[in-house]
Amino acid sequence: MKKLGVLVLCMLVLCSSVNGFADPEPFKTNTFEIGPEFSYVVYNEPDVMQEKGWMYGVSGSYAYHNKFMLGLDGKISWGHVDYSSDDSGEVSDIPNTMMECRGVLGYDFLALENANLLFYITPYLGLGYRYLKDNADGKKTDKGRLTYERESNYLYTPMGLEIVTKMDNGWTIGGTAEYDLFWQGWQKSHLGTAVAEFDTVNNVQHRGFGVRGSVMFAKEWEHIGLVLEPYIRYWNIDKSEESDIRYSGVIVGYGYEPKNTSAEYGIKVSLTF
Q: Does domain 27-272 have CATH number 2.40.128.100?
């Protein structure tokens, strides 16, 4: 109920004063953006393990502006991470795949206008889904421990604020600050990729949050633009519910996904049209 109350409050703030300014729009009505994305990821389970490594991929988005804003965006990236644990040992070059898709609604408020620039503030909220596959499929650590494939799924509501300064020389400078309201996570631990007789363990996560921020530098020409956007994305997720661990169908124990954090430091370089 607390999460629902926060969401309703944000919707009321977003929809208030929609009959505000009637000034010129700084945005194109329809904008598409696509380009490469590079990031360094650090995943940490305190006192248990850590993974870190580089990810490379592509991101794309569509934005509609007509006072109200509709935004759709997605990304997919691949890379390899190195695993380390005091108990289990170390293993390098574990393949990872990350995907994310989001949809948001917002409203463009004109905060400042003069002869040289327009300054807009856009609050927004929406729905997002994040998927991560850690393909440590049957690898061995330097201590001889077997690793296994894991899948992570998050469902969340992004709630944020975007600021944009549009200058008369074709340059745009802006930034985004966002809080991600975590609804639920689903974790799949495919223990059978290490020892065939083990069943997959499914754990549900109920509590956590995310935050992210970025700065944006863009140059527009008549038909195309170029965007450079450094960013930080962070998740903090509490311990999951416990689930059965089964060996050949027989319960042999109980498992859970530990409390964990993940931080991603990256940059996007995109063309807009």
A: yes
Residue 201 makes CB contacts below 8 A (sequence gap 6+) with 188, 189, 191, 243, 244, 245, 255
Residue the block writes with tokens 């729905």: 127
pLDDT of residue 8: 45
**pTM recorded for the entire structure:** 0.89
- The predicted pLDDT at position 2 comes to 53
pLDDT of 3 reads: 56
Domain-by-domain residue ranges, the chain? 27-272
Distance (Å, whole) CA 249 – CA 199 = 7
Q: Which residues fall within 8 angstroms of residue 127, CB to CB, at 6 or more apart?
A: 102, 103, 155, 156, 157, 158
Tell me 7's DSSP state. H
Query: Residue 50 in contact with residue 85, Cβ under 8 Å?
Result: yes
Predicted confidence at residue 167, as pLDDT, reads 93
